[in-house]
Design goal:
Number of strands: 7
CATH architecture: 3-Layer(aba) Sandwich
CATH topology: Rossmann fold
Distance between the termini: 28 Å
Largest sheet: 7 strands, parallel
Order of helices and strands: EHEHEHEHEHEHHEH
Strand order of the largest sheet: 3-2-1-4-5-6-7
Helix content: 40-55%
Radius of gyration: 17 Å
């Protein structure tokens, strides 16, 4: 059996997910990646396949059938060492206030941002326990701070924070993290600020060393900020 670690990353066709996949591929991780857009995901797979073994599974993390397919892909690779729940949904843009937020859109945001990560952990748990693995859930400061116009996305991330910390308490045999990467120059961040110049935000690859520390290190379970992880030394 190949002893190279296997990492599953959702939302890996662009932004932080793709930047992390590139870094882990260069470090010898085999990868299972997903995204909703099949064309962009195939471009990512072809690039990453030059460095490592990679399985790309297009689909929607809100679908349990898709989540099952992702875990089966990891099983076929023989193990699962880390699950990175990076896929997120912003919701309507421009961002509405809560009293104007369509509830069907809000339900969709919760399904992608909070319930899907939990659903993947539920399906992947036997593999993760077998490898003493890691769960890395990507959150936002909007999950812990009250910003006008961020009630839908922010409350879904607050739910993800709470779910993650409870999972950490219930499964001390795993490393379970929720990490706030901070503002980044990504498509989703641009969608949150339509028409604004976000070129001053960091590129996602600047944040990646913080996530690599969580995927490969021995930090205690809990909530972390990329800014803090980088301040005490990232991974070169």
């Amino acid at each position: 059996m190949d002893d190279h670690p296997v990492t599953l990353i959702t939302g890996a066709s662009r932004g932080l997910g793709l930047a992390l996949a590139r870094a882990l591929a260069a470090r010898g991780h085999r990868l299972v990646i997903d995204a909703r857009g099949a064309v962009a995901l195939e471009r990512a797979r072809a690039e990453l396949a030059e460095l490592t073994e990679v399985v790309a599974v297009p689909g929607d993390v809100a679908s349990d059938a898709h989540r099952r397919t992702l875990v089966v892909a990891a099983e076929r690779l023989g193990r699962l060492d880390a699950l990175v729940n990076n896929a997120s949904l912003l919701g309507p843009s421009p961002r509405p206030g809560l009293v104007d937020h369509p509830l069907d859109d809000l339900e969709r945001v919760y399904r992608v941002n909070a319930l899907a990560p939990l659903g993947l952990v539920q399906r992947a748990l036997p593999l993760l326990v077998a490898s003493h693995g890691r769960v890395v859930n990507v959150t936002s400061d909007a999950g812990s701070e009250a910003y006008a116009g961020w009630g839908g996305y922010g409350s879904s991330k607050a739910a993800l924070d709470a779910l993650t910390l409870v999972l950490a308490a219930e499964h001390p045999e795993l490393r379970v993290y929720v990490v706030d990467p901070g503002d980044m120059r990504t498509q989703m961040h641009q969608e949150a600020f339509p028409g604004e110049d976000i070129s001053d935000r960091p590129d996602p690859q600047q944040v990646v060393p913080a996530l690599v520390r969580l995927v490969e290190g021995e930090l205690p379970s809990g909530r972390h900020r990329a800014e803090d992880l980088l301040a005490v030394g990232g991974v070169r």
